[in-house]
Amino acid sequence: MSTIDLETARRVAKLARIAVPDDNLPQLAEELSGILSFMEQLNEVDIEGIEPMTSVTPMRLKRRQDGVTDGGQQAKILSNAPDAREGFFAVPKVVE
């Protein structure tokens, strides 16, 4: 069983950009050790011949027809533009 020491817990917190006070490091180390222990238990399960699944209940994902559209809101979107010309946003020229 893998155990996480305080220094490793401190390093993991730093890498994750999580501010963990020193007095909370023992609890974090214990929780991380528990996670690793659970992962080791999962590695013991025989999964030979079992197909991966996306859900515990077999179901097909809902799909919609994939069609390209212009969104039908060009006039509404361009109404917020400070300067629109010929159906497009107009911006100042920045490169000569």
Protein model, in words:
The protein is mainly alpha-helical. It has a domain at 6-43. Helices cover 35% and strands 4% of the residues. The chain contains 3 helices and 2 strands. It has helices spanning 6-15, 25-43, 74-78; strands spanning 84-85, 88-89. A two-stranded antiparallel ribbon has the order 1-2. Helix 1 crosses helix 2 (25-43). The longest helix is centred in the middle third of the chain and has 19 residues, at 25-43. The chain is flat. It starts with 5 loop residues before the first helix and ends in a 7-residue tail after the last strand. It is an enzyme of class 6 (ligase). Belongs to the GatC family. Its EC number is 6.3.5.-. It catalyses: L-aspartyl-tRNA(Asn) + L-glutamine + ATP + H2O = L-asparaginyl-tRNA(Asn) + L-glutamate + ADP + phosphate + 2 H(+); L-glutamyl-tRNA(Gln) + L-glutamine + ATP + H2O = L-glutaminyl-tRNA(Gln) + L-glutamate + ADP + phosphate + H(+). InterPro entries: Asp/Glu-ADT_sf_sub_c (IPR036113), GatC (IPR003837).
Keywords:
mainly alpha; 96 residues; flat; single chain
Strand line-up in the sheet with most strands: 1-2
Residue stretches low in confidence (pLDDT < 50, at least 5 long) are none
For this entry, what is the oligomeric state of its chains?
A: single chain
Number of beta strands: 2
Radius of gyration (Å): 27 Å
Largest sheet: 2 strands, antiparallel
